[in-house]
Design goal:
single chain, mainly alpha
Length: 69
């Protein structure tokens, strides 16, 4: 599972950025679920490591919602 990079333009609206974040979160979640489903012998630590790649995207979206950026 690779990291996800999102390119934001300086003149993008909050709605455009939120759509990009939603798309990236969805892609990361799908990839994580496929990785876990394709390897049922993963340990708990490996499963947690895969899910942690999703955390920065979700945290960024939450900060945007809280601060109204």
């Amino acid at each position: 599972m690779e990291g996800f990079m999102i390119d934001f333009e300086a003149n993008e609206s909050k709605d455009e950025i939120m759509r990009k974040l939603d798309t990236a979160i969805s892609e990361a979640r799908t990839e994580m679920e496929k990785s876990i489903a394709s390897n049922p012998k993963l340990t708990i630590n490996e499963t947690v490591r895969l899910s942690q790649k999703l955390d920065p995207l979700i945290a960024h979206k939450q900060r945007m919602l809280i601060y109204g950026c």
